[in-house]
Design goal:
single chain; about 90 residues; mainly beta; two-stranded antiparallel sheet; 7 strands; about 0% helix; about 35% strand; elongated
């Protein structure tokens, strides 16, 4: 946060490039709530609840179906502070 005031209600969304596959449980950045999307970033839910339509009905999304990751910070980010968010992926 390069600003002079604390940043409140901060959410950061990172697309997962189509050329890579997200590595399960590798997203990090605290203190934050991390949610996932498999529909191009339209909807975000906890990883355990990320479902997609399959031939036999709804099923848990696979890691290669994750399109976006969202970090929502629970606390304001103080002025003149920095941190890091990350995830790991494998090149397809």
């Amino acid at each position: 946060n390069e600003g002079a005031l604390a940043a409140e209600a901060v959410s950061l969304v990172m697309p997962v490039p189509a050329e890579v596959t997200y590595i399960e449980a590798s997203a990090g950045g605290t203190p934050s709530t991390i949610t996932f999307s498999a529909d191009g970033g339209s909807n975000f839910v906890a990883r355990a609840n990320l479902v997609v339509a399959g031939e036999a009905g709804a099923r848990l999304a696979t890691a290669d179906e994750i399109t976006h990751i969202k970090w929502a910070f629970a606390e304001p980010i103080p002025a003149a502070s920095e941190g890091a968010i990350s995830f790991r992926a494998v090149l397809n």
